[in-house]
């Protein structure tokens, strides 16, 4: 058994939660800690019985940093708290190793900002930088800062992996020996799907009066609202349904005035055939939701550099459900034709939806889609990275 420390920066209710999924697979045979760097437990919380440590249903541990200073919310004090907490965790890992409970220690990083953690811990762990997205995209306010930190991280980590050829090309321009690994997809919950709760069944019963063109994912600035509006206005015989958490507060990260995306959502919702179910959907219900869709969509705005580099995990959820997919011109998805048809125009989307609607989706396509999805499971991804670490450590 080895010790894995994963740095966790996102919200735990995100649909696309690559840190938790990685921890879930690793915890089957290792001791795994997910360090919640953006959450804290105060000394007062401790006095009232609030624990900084919780165990997930999958056997790994969430640890929130304990705020040891009353001014812990200020940047300098927060950084000091993080340093102290991270060293305590590291010392515990040494004790576990000395007692023979673990063999090796690994630090698994997912974000350019994790370079600060890496600097502190590089001599204590074998480091893995798992590049799951293109964080230095030009539309982000802190793009230059993230690019600088990413370069340092890529040049310094023991192992660097990335999820798509386009991201590999980008990272390889910084340093060689970047390895392509599969994307992650939670296959287990699609093999044993659960029925929807009654409240959702009732909502979808009304929505299913027309064939549903559906999307599952965060409701945020990445959606091409103009494209969806144009298509929905021309395709009144379909319902366009978006299911996912409200992430419109991300406007501040891309220089948009707060509320811009929320207004776009509100405007689009006025159409009689567009519906936003803005909720944090538990992963276990996604298969049942996708089964209600006639066609799945990935309507990302490709004028955004982040979307140009993305490799949406949802594509494999769509595939395992055996659904045809319409998407904007995302480079990583074009190779999946005829299962995915791409266009950036209203006319193009109308033609694709018309073709999909005229014929029954072939069984042979469904079988091929499921095979592709299974090849991109979280288990395959994590196993591939673990094999790479063993090869790297033997050199």
Concise synopsis of the structure shown:
The protein has 16 helices and 16 strands. With 395 residues, the chain is an alpha/beta fold.
Number of helices: 16
- Per CATH, the architecture of the largest domain is 3-Layer(aba) Sandwich
Give me the secondary-structure category. alpha/beta
Q: What strand line-up does the widest sheet have?
A: 4-5-2-1-7-8-9-10
Instruction: Profile the largest sheet.
Output: 8 strands, mixed
Count of DSSP E strands? Answer: 16
Mean pLDDT: 91
Radius of gyration: 22 Å
Question: Unreliable stretches, pLDDT < 50, 5 or more residues?
Answer: none
Top-tier CATH class of the largest domain: Alpha Beta
Query: What is the 3D form?
Result: globular
**Relative helix content:** 40-55%
Proportion of β residues? 15-25%
* N- to C-terminal distance: 21 Å
């Amino acid at each position: 058994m080895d010790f894995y420390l994963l740095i966790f920066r996102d919200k735990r209710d995100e649909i696309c939660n690559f840190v938790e999924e990685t921890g879930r697979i690793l915890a089957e045979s290792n001791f795994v800690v997910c360090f919640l760097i953006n959450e804290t437990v105060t000394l007062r919380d401790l006095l009232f019985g609030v624990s900084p440590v919780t165990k997930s249903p999958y056997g790994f541990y969430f640890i929130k940093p304990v705020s040891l200073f009353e001014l812990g919310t200020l940047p300098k004090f927060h950084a000091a708290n993080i340093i102290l907490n991270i060293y305590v965790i590291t010392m515990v890992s040494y004790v576990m190793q000395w007692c023979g409970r673990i063999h090796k220690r690994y630090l698994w990083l997912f974000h350019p900002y994790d370079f600060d953690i890496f600097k502190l811990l590089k001599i204590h762990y074998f480091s893995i930088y798992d590049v799951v997205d293109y964080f230095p995209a030009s539309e982000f306010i802190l793009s230059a800062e993230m690019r600088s930190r990413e370069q340092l991280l890529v040049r310094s980590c023991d192992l660097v992996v990335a999820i798509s050829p386009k991201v590999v090309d980008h990272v390889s321009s910084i340093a060689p020996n970047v390895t392509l690994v599969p994307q992650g997809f939670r296959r287990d919950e699609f093999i044993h799907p659960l029925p929807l709760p009654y409240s959702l069944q009732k909502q979808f019963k009304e929505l299913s009066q027309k064939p549903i063109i559906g999307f599952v994912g965060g409701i945020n600035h990445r959606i091409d609202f103009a494209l969806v509006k144009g298509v929905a206005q021309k395709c009144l015989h379909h319902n366009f349904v978006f299911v996912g958490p409200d992430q419109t507060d991300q406007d501040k990260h891309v220089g948009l005035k707060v509320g811009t995306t929320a207004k776009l959502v509100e405007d689009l919702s006025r159409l009689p055939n567009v519906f936003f179910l803005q909720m944090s959907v538990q992963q276990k219900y996604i298969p049942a939701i996708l089964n209600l869709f006639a066609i799945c969509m990935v309507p990302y705005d490709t004028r955004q550099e982040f979307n140009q580099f993305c490799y949406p995990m949802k594509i494999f959820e769509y595939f395992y459900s055996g659904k045809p997919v319409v998407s904007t011109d995302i480079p990583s998805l074009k190779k999946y034709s005829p299962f995915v048809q791409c266009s950036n125009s209203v006319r193009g989307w109308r033609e694709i939806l018309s073709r999909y609607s005229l014929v029954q989706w072939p069984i042979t396509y469904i079988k091929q889609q499921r095979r592709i999805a299974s090849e991109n499971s979280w288990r395959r991804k994590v196993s591939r990275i673990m094999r790479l670490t063993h090869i790297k450590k033997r050199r």
